[in-house]
Amino acid sequence: MKIISYNVNGIRAALTKGFADWLKSANPDVLCLQEIKATEDQIPKEVFSELGYKYQYYHSAEKKGYSGVAILSKIEPKHVEVGTGIDYMDREGRVLRADFETLSVMSLYLPSGTNPDRLDFKLTFMADFQKYIDKLKQKVPNLVICGDYNICHEAIDIHDPYEMPMYRAFFP
Known about the structure:
This is Exodeoxyribonuclease. Belongs to the DNA repair enzymes AP/ExoA family. Mg(2+) binds at residues 7, 35, 148, 150. The record marks 150 as: Transition state stabilizer. Its cofactor is Mg(2+); Mn(2+). This protein has helices at 11-16, 19-26, 45-50, 87-90, 116-139; strands at 3-7, 30-34, 55-59, 69-73, 79-82, 95-99, 104-109, 143-148. By secondary structure, it is of the alpha/beta class. It contains five helices and eight strands, in the order βααβαβββαββαβ. The chain is globular. The chain has one domain (3-170): Endonuclease/exonuclease/phosphatase (Deoxyribonuclease I, Chain A, 4-Layer Sandwich). The chain starts with a strand and ends in a 24-residue tail after the last strand.
């Protein structure tokens, strides 16, 4: 199974910039998307259906035009889980899981820590998410977590490290 994860920074904008052509060329069996920034009714699903992605699942944020994740698949999952069941996480549309025959695939979009309030939110989110994963792994042992973790390991991992040397993205 070929799995690709991609932060599209807006699915509709990505489609106007050649995303469908890239997807056709890359041709994964399962595609995990982050930061779709759209509700399900705003997504032109037929574009993906025409490329063979018959199974499409979306988890959008309550706030319009914000975050959101998706899983597009050529293979029918046995089960799809939208969110974690943890309300404050699920309102932001950050976790979606598809269970296949031999493994489960999760699309994850962790919050950024660009200001003190969001950094606190991110750290709480990460701690609660780890507890969620620890429990989930007991019943779903073969779990592939794809996504945007919003963590920069080195300066090269951020778009402008010299302009913002203490940018919070360098932290967890």
